[in-house]
Amino acid sequence: MSLNGKTGASMRLIAILCAVALAGCAASVDRIQTGDGRTGYNIECGGSAYSWAKCYKAATKACPTGYDVLSRDGSTTQTNYGPAVDRSMVVACK
User: What pTM did the predictor assign?
Assistant: First the structure.
């Protein structure tokens, strides 16, 4: 079965939008070494549908024995498609 015409284009658009939405579900967590020699993580957790709780959940998963927040930064930029929300934080594991 092949998709033709407007129906096919609509289905492809829906599939692309779903893929983009799912890609924003997970926080990006990159391992680093902090200035004081501890293991740490740079966590990117943006998305207008999410909150800082997404970052803290990722930090807890990365550092199950606890962590110190070394920096936290967030910004919102208005676009034609709605707000683009960027959030990032750096944590050091205890």
Answer: 0.69
